[in-house]
Write a structure and sequence with these properties.
The protein has 15 helices and 16 strands. The longest helix has 20 residues, at 14-33. α12 runs parallel beside α15. The chain has helices at 14-33, 47-55, 59-62, 83-92, 136-151, 167-181, 190-198, 209-215, 227-240, 286-289, 304-308, 333-345, 360-369, 380-384, 404-412; strands at residues 37-38, 44-46, 67-69, 75-78, 100-109, 121-130, 158-163, 245-248, 262-267, 276-282, 297-303, 321-326, 350-353, 374-378, 387-392, 399-403. The strands form 3 sheets. The chain has an 8-stranded mixed sheet. A 5-stranded mixed sheet has the order 13-12-14-15-16, sandwiched between helices. The structure holds histidyl-adenosine monophosphate. Residues 81-83, 110, 112, 118-119, 122, 124, 126, 128, 255-256, 276-281, 283, 299-301, 303, 305-306 line the site of histidyl-adenosine monophosphate (HAM).
């Protein structure tokens, strides 16, 4: 039997990765402009890191963690997200008192049921701002999110936002929600009954009709958070409402236990059921929970597979491609030297070679297929005379014979 990749862990081929590279280059440019610096943490961490941060009651830790015993019988897990590792790294370096603006990227792992937009190995690009209390950092991160979407040509989305108050407000709301729902527990869908017992706030995320109906009369988060938090949330919405569709969503609690304060998500109807392509919020208590010192923390992560679906590629900055075609008998040190000279003369151009040779005609066909705009052809005659044919492949196929110096000049000026 042929070996297949694991379920929910797709391969990415060159034709897929063109969009990824475009996305990554736009994002690194934006992160630079905010002076947000990259951090890389391991894919494997001790399981306890995730049970203590993401939360024992969350689905991510309960059912979705890829955990194993290593050779030393210690339980280790593939990371399901990036924030916990970043906080662990800063605590380990004893830098909780400093301010950090960080970004990261890479694969994350969750044993979920695969479907469109939901994978077991997926990728995130995330940002964490550490050491900044509630205030300007919320504004800066949301404007970063808007800038990212704008630079990728994504305009049709909603930014949902909520304020979960501090840990105390979150707990009182949770208790009140449980007291309200418990007498109606058997009216809830089976899945929501389980959530009510394990992680009651997640009932608010339910897509079940009966639950949604029941929740209409349930206590509201807004009644548990302070006036100050409410005003802060309204201030945020008012500041950004002219730039995007931003909406307060009181049922937005997010799936990880560590959040307090502002939480947000961007959703697009173009994505189907898995419509959130970015999510984040404030999580000031996580450092303490991991035995670190107090550290204000806020961030977000983008689901790369999902956002990639929404990108409109702007072709204007795309590199020009030129095919370098050499008659099989002429392939030698000399022709390779010409190719090298051309590459060093203008590194903004892709010079594609067709290594298995074949006739000039068949190489030209391959140049056209691979999207070359021009071809440089060195046949028998040209090789003898230190010349090359310059051929325009775009429309009428015009061509001219050039000396090697003229060829280099032409190439530099493309
Ligand atoms: P999250 O909402 O669990 O948050 O994930 C962020 C994004 O990752 C989601 O909005 C979604 O686009 C994508 N995503 C999640 N699971 C999958 C999956 N199975 N397949 C494909 N894409 C997926 C976090 O992970 C937090 N660490 C974000 C954060 C950073 N909060 C503060 N700082």
């Amino acid at each position: 039997m042929k070996i297949q990749s694991l379920r929910g862990m797709p391969d990415l081929f060159p034709e897929d990765l063109e969009r990824w590279h475009y996305f990554e280059s736009k994002l690194t440019y934006i992160f630079n402009s905010f002076n947000t610096l990259e951090i890389r943490t391991p894919l494997l961490e001790s399981t306890e890191l995730f049970s203590r941060s993401v939360g024992n009651s969350s689905d991510i830790v309960n059912k979705e963690l890829y955990s194993f015993l290593d050779r030393n019988k210690e339980s280790i897990s593939l990371r399901p997200e990036g924030s916990a590792s970043v906080i662990r790294a800063i605590i380990q370096k004893k830098q909780e008192h400093e301010k950090h603006k960080l970004w990261y990227q890479g694969p994350m792992f969750r044993y979920e049921r695969p479907q469109k937009g939901r994978f077991r190995q997926f990728h995130q690009i995330g940002v964490e701002y550490l050491g900044f209390e509630e205030g300007v950092s919320e504004y800066e991160l949301i404007s970063m999110v808007l800038q990212i979407n704008q630079s990728l040509g994504i305009s049709d989305y909603t930014l949902k936002i909520n304020h979960l108050g501090d840990a105390h407000a979150k707990e009182s709301f949770c208790n009140s929600l449980v007291s309200f729902l418990e007498p109606h527990a058997n009216e809830l869908h089976e899945k929501d009954q389980i959530r009510l017992r394990s992680n009651p706030l997640r009932v608010l995320d339910s897509k079940e009709k009966s639950t949604i109906e029941l929740l209409k009369n349930a206590p509201k988060f807004q009644d548990f958070i302070s006036e100050e938090s409410k005003l802060f949330l309204e201030g945020l919405v008012n500041s950004f409402k002219d730039q995007c569709d931003i909406q307060i969503d009181q049922s937005l609690v997010r799936g990880l236990d560590y959040y307090t304060g502002v939480v947000f998500e961007t959703v697009s109807s173009e994505l189907g059921a898995q419509d959130a392509f970015l999510g984040g919020g404030r999580y000031d208590n996580l450092s303490k929970q991991l035995e670190g010192k107090d550290m204000y923390s806020i961030g977000f992560a983008i689901g790369v597979e999902r956002i990639i679906e929404l990108i409109n590629i702007d072709d204007s900055g795309k590199k020009i491609k030129v095919g370098f075609i050499v008659n099989e008998q002429q392939i030698s040190q000399k022709t390779y030297k010409i190719a090298d000279d051309l590459r060093s003369a203008n590194s903004c151009i892709i010079l594609d070679t067709f290594l298995s040779g074949g006739s000039i005609k068949s190489q030209l066909r391959r140049a056209n297929k691979s999207g070359c705009s021009f071809a440089i052809i060195i046949g028998e005659e040209e090789f003898k005379n230190n010349q090359a044919i310059w051929k325009d492949l775009r429309e009428d196929g015009e061509q001219e014979v050039l000396s090697l110096q003229e060829l280099i000049n032409q190439y530099i000026n493309l």
